[in-house]
Amino acid sequence: MNLRTPQHCTPQNPNPPSPGNTPCRERGFTLIELLLVLVILGILAAVVVPKFSGRTEQARITATQSQIATFGTALDAFEVDNGFYPKGKSGLDDLIQQPANAQNWRGPYMKTQVIPPDPWGNPYLYECPGRHNPSSYDLMSTGPDGREGGDDDITNWQQATPRR
Asked: Which CATH fold topology does 59-155 show?
């Protein structure tokens, strides 16, 4: 009787002592095992992907609302320093570059070199004095459709009502 510890099949010892001394078979995944894993991954993707597909548009809307709030903070700081909000439709540029009529300008009021577009690539629309806020300014993004006046506009005077 052999009391030695049995040797296992390893690359260094492909023929360990065993009854009949049969060589070890290389272990790996069979084609059926691999196909089963692919089917499971496909089913998971079919369930998970639709749940996240609507999140992109909502994320853009939220980013736009945050950017409008950031502009609002910068515009308020400009107003505190100068006693007025930047005038005209290009007033957001005054947050980065000092306008000629702002003697107490302490900017730049934004950390960027240029005013960023909204998440859909359109410029933000700024107007001072505003039609909706006559004592301050109106600031808006035209939203996903890129047209002013739609129900998807995101503004500083009302909450957005995104279409589903």
From this structure: Glycoprotein, Type 4 Pilin (3.30.700)
